[in-house]
Amino acid sequence: MHRLIHTLLLAAALLVPGLAPAQQAAGDGKGPPAGFVAPAEPKAGETNAERAKSQPGNNAPLWGAVRRTGQDAGVTTLPGVESGVLIQGFVQYPGSRLASAGEAWRQVRNQWIVPYGGSLLLIVLLATALFYWRRGALGGHEPDGTVRIERFTPFERAAHWTNAIAFSVLALSGLVMAFGKYFLLPVIGGALFGWLTFALKNAHNFVGPLFVVSLLIVIGTFVRDNLPRAGDLTWLLRFGGLFSAHEVPSHRFNAGEKVVFWAGVFLLGLGTAGSGLVLDMLVPGIAYTRGNMQVAHMIHSASAVLMMAMFIGHIYMGTLGMKGAYAAMRTGYVSEGWAREHHAQWADDVRSGKIAAQRSAAPEPGVLPLVQS
Ligand code: HEM
């Protein structure tokens, strides 16, 4: 279109006397002015030195070579796994256009993970707040009674809380790194935000390995009671009885907790932890190239956002959402009434003696032991 308009304007100028280009008016109308020598077309395979002679000032071979360092390894005296590669080759990461890898990674982060991940977290937070507003804390319908059952041993609680505290530090620092420039930077300004992010980034790097170790201990500690059992499907299909008068009976952990365990703790937890260790450069035998780091970063941030979304639900149920749940993980003990209301089959097994009511060596001081009746 532009070309057509340009041609039409040129034709009009040539037809109107006095508007023809000066060169045309000065010459004989058949070619360039006398004495003009057009430079030779540059040859395709020229080196930069050759091009400097054939077309002084044209550095295209140099920049072409820089551009191709992702495909043709250059020559450099610098050490490193990617020496000689200034610009990575072209790739298309899921969700990006075909672009040089750095740009493709940038597109995935800025066009997918940040906007959709941030929206997901806000939506889950809002839905949880709405649920609390409409339903309040669940439970509290059974009288406690005088009997106490040890739900979590000191070891289980130590593993859980180490992991939970590490998770909270990582979640907080990760959120500031990913979304802080939108909600914190405008409030606290560049200088403070810079220092804060720098401090949190270092906290993230050092707390990461603590999370990984405690995550493995948590998985090992709770895996047995999270194995699927008959009745789990019924629990899921009836949403645990959330919309009826009574909870669907479950064993020590209900099917909802099992979903959080397998999808959140096991799958997303290990995915986030493994990719985090790669980003920390702690996994031996990996080539720490930009490409591998980009892939590790995309897995890490996507799985961390999904994990946080799941754990908003877990943390809600473990604090505000269910009466007595937080006390169970803090003290280790629940009342028999709580066990009967929320984990009826587990309570039955404890009452029949199939599962010990006191699993750790000594009851906590001041705690009433189970009275078998
Ligand atoms: C950060 C705040 C957290 C709070 C307030 C919290 C709270 C709780 C509470 C109260 C329970 C007991 C539930 C019951 O009695 O059935 C529990 C269980 C559990 N929590 Fe957490 N938790 C947190 C974070 C985490 C994290 C980060 C993980 C792992 C990545 C985790 C993994 C577990 C596991 C495996 C259980 C046993 C029940 C199951 O397997 O689902 N928690 N939590």
Summarize the structure.
This protein has 14 helices and four strands. The chain is mostly helical.
Distance between the termini: 92 Å
Order of helices and strands: HHHHEEHEHHHHHHHEHH
CATH fold name of the domain at 105-351: Fumarate Reductase Cytochrome B subunit
Count of helical segments? 14
| Helix-and-strand structural type | mainly alpha
Bulk shape: elongated
Bound molecules: protoporphyrin IX containing FE
Instruction: Calculate the mean pLDDT score and round it.
Output: 90
SSE arrangement:
Elements (H helix, E strand, L loop, with lengths): L1 H14 L6 H5 L21 H7 L5 H8 L22 E2 L7 E2 H35 L12 E3 L3 H30 L1 H4 L1 H33 L9 H6 L17 H25 L10 H32 L3 H7 L1 E3 H7 L1 H8 L22
Antiparallel strand pairs: 1-2, 3-4
Helix pairs in contact: 5-11, 6-8, 8-10, 10-11, 13-14
The structure holds protoporphyrin IX containing FE.
